[in-house]
Amino acid sequence: AQSVAQPEDQVNVAEGNPLTVKCTYSVSGNPYLFWYVQYPNRGLQFLLKYITGDNLVKGSYGFEAEFNKSQTSFHLKKPSALVSDSALYFCAVRDTTGGFKTIFGAGTRLFVKA
Amino acid sequence: DAGVIQSPRHEVTEMGQEVTLRCKPISGHDYLFWYRQTMMRGLELLIYFNNNVPIDDSGMPEDRFSAKMPNASFSTLKIQPSEPRDSAVYFCASSQGARSGGYTFGSGTRLTVV
Q1: For residue A34, which of A92, B23, B36, B89 is within the disulfide window of CB 3.0 to 4.6 Å?
Q2: Does pLDDT of B71 surpass 90?
Q3: How many separate helices (H) and strands (E) can be counted in chain A?
Q4: How far is A4 from chain B (nearest CA, A)?
Q5: Does the beta carbon of A96 lie under 8 angstroms from any beta carbon of chain B?
Q6: Nearest neighbour of A107 by CB, restricted to B33, B35, B42
Q7: Which letter, b or e, does each residue of A85-94 get, where b requires 16 or more Cβ atoms within 10 Å of its Cβ?
Q8: What is the reported pLDDT for B98?
């Protein structure tokens, strides 16, 4: 069975500093990995995905994520955080071996302080 | 495109009443997903459809929950009878294909059962 873990409930960074939001996963086959962001009282918004190819994928709003197969991780990063990046971030994994269900992590709340 | 449209945005109902949540997916998207979000359990996949046909309803918590998709532009999630523990935010999402794309989420319906 597939699973995804976000080990940090909350991440605090100062504006202008780099940020990292961690994610690890477990699937039986090749993973498709995703990051979404949720602002208050809104639905989730797709940020980026890893399907195959380059381990560093770039997405919306300057975010990027690094896929590490040996560590089964897919950490979200941004070189310089903005206050407006403050939101709830979800990592998700899709197991392609049977069905295409997407499982979401518990979410990590990011606070960017001015 | 107006995106995925859910109605109502908020619903307050008394225990025992029937509740119907509605979703209009993005035109041309052939997959539709219903998720439930709570603080305790995070995002849970309830059911998903492909070309209006239910594919996996293993996440539907009880027989009190039912979902239909009578056509490509409309889906409903019904709870009958409702209970206080059903209080949550219910999201509908759609995608074109289920394999490698991200999902587009609606803004959700916040359900409160008193």
Answers
A1: A92
A2: yes
A3: 0, 12
A4: 12
A5: yes
A6: B42
A7: bbbbbbbbbb
A8: 66
Q: Which chain A residues touch B108 with a CB distance below 8 Å?
A: 41-43
CB contact under 8 A, A105 and B42: yes
Nearest CA to B93 among B39, B46, B41, B40?
B46
* DSSP codes of every residue in A69-93: TTTTEEEEEESS--GGG-EEEEEEE
Do A13 and A20 touch, CB atoms closer than 8 A? no
Over residues A100-107, the mean pLDDT reads 88
Q: Cβ of B99 and A100 within 8 Å?
A: yes
Q: Tell which residue, A23, A4, A101, has the closest CA to residue A63.
A: A23
Using the Cβ of B107 and the Cβ atoms of chain A, whether some distance falls under 8 Å is answered with yes
- Encode pLDDT of B1-57 as tens digits: 679 999 999 999 999 999 999 999 999 999 999 999 998 999 999 999 999 999 999
Contact A43 B107 (CB under 8 A): yes
The amino acid sitting at A32 is Y
